[in-house]
Amino acid sequence: MLFTSLEYLLFFSAVFAIYWSLPSARSRLTCLLLASIWFYVSWNPWCLGLILAAGLNVYAAGLALEHTRRPGARRGLLIASIAINLGLLAFFKYGAFVAKSALALWHGLGGSSSWRAPDILLPLGISFYTFETISYVVDVYRGRTRAARDPLEFALYVVFFPRLIAGPIVRPHEFLPQLRRWHLFSWDRFQVGLQFVVIGYLKKAALADHLCPIVDQVFGNPDAYGTAAVWLGVLAYTAQIYLDFSGYSDIAIGSAHLLGYSLPRNFNLPYLARGLGEFWHRWHISLSTWLRDYLFIPLGGSRGTAWQTARNLLVTMVLGGLWHGANWTFVAWGLYHGLLLIADRFGPRGRWLPWRTMPATLLAVCVGWVFFRAQTFTTAFTLLGRMFCPTAGLGLSPLDTLTVGLVLGVLAVGHVLQASWDVRRVERRLPAPVLGTLLALLLLLTLVLIPEDGKGFIYFQF
Amino acid sequence: VTSPHRPDPKQRGRRVVVWMLGLFFGIQLLSTWLLDRHGLRIRFPVMAEVKAEVLAEKPQIVFLGSSRFGSTVNPELMTALFRRELGDKAPRVANAAVAAGDPIVSERMLDQLLAQGCRPRLVVVEMLPESVNWWDVWLEQQVLRLLDWRDMPDVVPSLRHMNFLRVFRARFLPLYTHRYHLRKEARLWAEGLFAEPAPAAAEPPLAGIPEVDPPLPELTPEKADELASSSRVGKREVRDYHVGGMVRQRLERLLARCQKEQIHVLLLGEPVCSAHRNDYTPEIEAAFRSYLDELERRYGCTFLDRRDALPDAAFRDYHHAIQDASCPFSRRLVEQDLLPLWKRIAQP
């Protein structure tokens, strides 16, 4: 059930109507839990067992941590519960990758084997809910959050459907208190939620999905295209991944708003960043802050020597790259960002230094996306070679070029407008009929532009 | 204290939402109304194309039906055969059949042809037992591409057998449902703004009459198996057989209109393969025949059974003939059935 499908709209409408008509907080939570299970099961019923196992493990660990005083036992509980959930993630996400890499190494060393690495089904959303459950148990261990006693509340923290598949990654102290509050229906909140959903649909279905075939053709056959086409393909992917993922996040945040819940913001005009450090404060914010709080800082953060800080940055970014997918190209992407972050941190300071300008940062990010999107290093290096050494080859069709140009134009205007205006304030000043008409026209435009073959969200594969 | 001249800010959210949803569904409903009236090219482009071709032909004999007619009726050959026999008094034949065309589509096609000044003297309507089964496999498709609000009361009894979501989409979200053709039309329109006007195409010469029909292929055991397995799909079309539903109603409306306009109607039992003919059990056949007798009595039309006119080797699936089969079938139909019938009709 894709967010952009009519099935989701009907499903959500039904959940919305039932949820707000229920008289008690408990019945509403039950309604949301059943809806979330239904939503998840509609993808793959088998994976429900896995999410239940991961959730039960952490729920029990949280309760046990509150009843245990001995530091050694608490530490043991924490490590065991994290190890179980990371073990599940490692097996389902990286099992086949590790087996294939080991087999390739064995063959490279001259060994022979008829054994084939197994294909393991990747459960949807596993990377996201694993991180959420880890942040829960760590926060309980640190005493930052009290363990949830109510299994209903805890289950909903793990499976709340608007953010179950691809985030934003929420922290227990942000979400659990919301589950304990009685929510009153508010038209203002309803309006804000609708706005998020409409903008999300526009980004995903009307803009990102039209770039997908163009990106696929360039990344699928990089040898055939000339420099200009490759640049357009890479820029198209730069726009596509932002519009796709931030569109998803907007729909998730909007859906949660419509049900009276707040989810954290995930993007803040990332392509206007000056410097890689600033980029990571603006891109996939819920992941970058998670990596900072639960990986970088526990590793020592920037408290030690420059060498230790650089090491921590590199480890964090490489693991962050690997989190995105089981492929060496993701590791390379993480390594690339880690090295650039080290350069950003320890290089000369100053806002107007050439590498701290917006175009230089955007260029660095675009180069990174080549590793992120390419299936193999051969593809990535072919594309980079053609980007930076003028090469003759096929060009994109005029229609494809126009499509990329239009979407990039819309993206650029959107970024600049949001950066220069307080959009929320402008929106508040608009008369209700004008704002209502604008939203209706945006939604109508989106409906007409939705491609016939609905595309999945890029981040669903992570 | 809220000023009496300024709207209560607490109500603003509600007003925005009401405006948004009201306008959104208002425009959708307006689009439904407009597309129902003027949007055949967007809702049902195939029918719009076929209709335009038929109107350009100004035919006296029109075939109405589905893709089955598309593969067995060769209108150019038929016109040439009539011309050989009747010279300048020969009628022109046009095939107004469209893919998934049931009596609902046939009735609407005739209605639109008449409305635009095309008045045939003979209409040949495809007629098989499944054409009038109460359970119309194509009804969902027709809701999407042809039916309008006035037809909805007739659709309601069949709703429980249909995908409700598709029906909802067709009526309440037309801009989403027809987005592909809307975008295509917009693109064509934009391209047309800059394109040079094309010179008018000359009328193609009438087709010649081949001396010998192309030979039909041998029926191999594999082909026979393929036909048998494809006929399992056909079996579904006659399940729970009884004559009725919207298709019956529309067929009778078509016949009544023809009777009123003094257009002769030939109901033609179109060739199907033997495996599918076996699906017509004696009970189905009896119900079908008795209904046809009733139609002949009430509307003065004629039923011509040509369901076994082609050997199994002439089929690509249980009810579609191969292209080469259109020559022998069209020739036989004209020489044995249509020519005598036309001579009778054309008598002053």
Would you kindly provide a written description of the structure presented here, covering whatever features stand out?
Chain A has 18 helices and no strands. The mean pLDDT of chain A is about 85. In chain A, helix 13 runs antiparallel to helix 14. In chain A, about 70% of the residues lie in helices and about 0% in strands. With about 450 residues, chain A is mainly α. Chain B is built from 16 helices and 5 strands. Chain B has about 350 residues and is of the alpha/beta class. The relative contact order of chain B is 0.15. Chain B has a 5-stranded parallel beta sheet. Chains A and B meet through helix 1, helix 8 and helix 18 of A and helix 1 and helix 11 of B.
* Biggest sheet, spatial arrangement of strands of chain B: 2-1-3-4-5
**Radius of gyration from the alpha-carbon trace of chain B, in angstroms:** 24 Å
What average pLDDT do the residues of chain B reach?
A: 86
Number of helices of chain A: 18
Measured on Cα atoms, how large is the radius of gyration of chain A? 23 Å
Low-confidence stretches of chain A: none
Please tally the helical runs of chain B, counting DSSP H or I stretches of 4 or more residues: 16
Strand coverage percent of chain A? under 5%
Terminal-residue CA separation of chain A = 17 Å
The overall pLDDT average of chain A reads: 87
Globally, the shape of chain B reads globular
Taken as a percent bin, the fraction of beta residues of chain B is: 5-15%
Helix fraction of chain B, binned, reads 55-70%
Note the main attributes of this structure:
heterodimer, A: 462 residues, mainly alpha, 18 helices, 0% strand, globular, B: 348 residues, alpha/beta, 5-stranded parallel beta sheet, 16 helices, 5 strands, 6% strand
Q: What's the short story on this structure?
A:
Chain A is mostly helical and 462 residues long.
How would the blueprint of this fold be written?
The complex is a heterodimer of chains A (462) and B (348).
Chain A: H1 6-21, H2 25-41, H3 47-67, H4 71-108, H5 126-142, H6 151-159, H7 172-180, H8 187-220, H9 227-258, H10 276-282, H11 285-296, H12 306-324, H13 328-346, H14 358-373, H15 377-388, H16 398-420, H17 423-429, H18 432-449
Helix pairs in contact in A: 1-2, 2-6, 3-4, 3-5, 3-6, 4-5, 6-7, 8-9, 8-16, 8-18, 9-14, 9-15, 9-16, 11-12, 12-13, 13-14, 14-15
Chain B: H1 12-38, H2 40-43, H3 45-57, E1 61-64, H4 67-72, H5 75-86, E2 93-95, H6 103-115, E3 122-126, H7 139-145, H8 152-155, H9 164-172, H10 174-177, H11 179-194, H12 221-237, H13 245-261, E4 264-269, H14 274-277, H15 282-299, E5 302-305, H16 326-346
Parallel strand pairs in B: 1-2, 1-3, 3-4, 4-5
Helix pairs in contact in B: 5-16, 6-13, 7-9
